[in-house]
Automatic annotation (TrEMBL):
Lineage of producing organism: Bacteria, Bacillati, Actinomycetota, Actinomycetes, Mycobacteriales
Organism this protein belongs to: Williamsia limnetica
UniProt cross-references to SMART domains, sorted A to Z: HTH_LUXR (SM00421), REC (SM00448)
InterPro entries on file: CheY-like_superfamily, Sig_transdc_resp-reg_C-effctor, Sig_transdc_resp-reg_receiver, Tscrpt_reg_LuxR_C, WalR-like, WH-like_DNA-bd_sf
Name the record gives this protein: LuxR family two component transcriptional regulator
Keywords of this entry: DNA-binding, Phosphoprotein
Gene3D superfamilies attached to this UniProt entry: 3.40.50.2300, Winged helix-like DNA-binding domain superfamily/Winged helix DNA-binding domain
Residues of the Response regulatory domain: 11-124
One Gene Ontology MF term: DNA binding
GO biological process, one term: regulation of DNA-templated transcription
Positions of modified residues (4-aspartylphosphate): D60
């Protein structure tokens, strides 16, 4: 009887930089009858190297190794694993990347525990998990071509477009001013090639907002 029960368990791995998040997920699922967290790591490679037979992987969008959602999901799928994004990030750009790579859905860390558990249980059975936020991020701007920026380029763009001068961005990021200017030039070229003008600082700000690198501006209160 025990063997049959254990064989029905759905085993989940977590790719996440923060141990507190993993502990929270384990606590959420500790009494779940068929889903359990059995492994965690900070990168896809480290999780796969553990050799667990997993039914689902929970994947954060922003990892300290700078890897992209596309690369991570592709690596997981090549290993025969499906992914559910579990993240606090609110970047439509990264969400679109994950969606195009073929994840089962996106769940925010801010969701109530029962919502998170239900999403994990559904995804562990192979079901799609569609949330309003995910649908809005995917469908809200289908005409925007994705622009592949490195994590460092995204940092530079976010700081510069938010109003910082290039020399201050250099100090804040530990880069040289020449490197910052080179990054900005490359960023402008990439957006231009995608048909999204970014010649001026105002346009760079607009592109950064569109791709979730900066928050949407609040409407003034009346």
């Amino acid at each position: 009887m025990k063997g049959r029960f254990m064989s029905s368990m759905r085993k989940v791995g977590v790719i996440e930089d923060h141990s507190s998040v993993v502990l929270g997920l384990q606590a959420m699922l500790i009494d779940h009858p068929v889903v359990e967290v059995v492994a965690s790591a900070g990168t896809v490679t480290d999780l796969l190297d553990q050799g667990f037979d997993l039914d689902l992987v929970l994947l954060d969008l922003r990892l300290s190794d700078g890897s992209s959602p596309t690369t991570n999901v592709d690596q997981l799928r090549a290993a025969g694993l499906e992914a559910l994004v579990f993240t606090g990030a609110e970047s439509p750009y990264l969400v679109r990347q994950a969606a195009k790579a073929g994840v089962l859905g996106v769940v925010r860390k801010s969701e109530p525990a029962d919502v998170v558990v239900a999403a994990i249980a559904a995804a562990a059975e192979g079901h799609q998990v569609v949330t309003t936020e995910w649908a809005a991020a995917i469908d809200g701007d289908p005409g925007l071509a994705d622009v592949e920026l490195s994590p460092r380029q995204r940092d530079v763009l976010a700081l510069y477009a938010s109003g910082e001068r290039a020399d201050r961005v250099a100090r804040m990021t530990g880069l040289s001013p020449n490197t910052v200017n080179d990054y900005l030039a490359r960023i402008r070229v990439k957006y231009a090639q995608a048909g999204r003008p970014a010649g001026s600082k105002v346009e760079l700000y607009q592109r950064a907002v569109e791709d979730g690198l900066l928050p949407m501006p609040e409407h003034p209160r009346r």
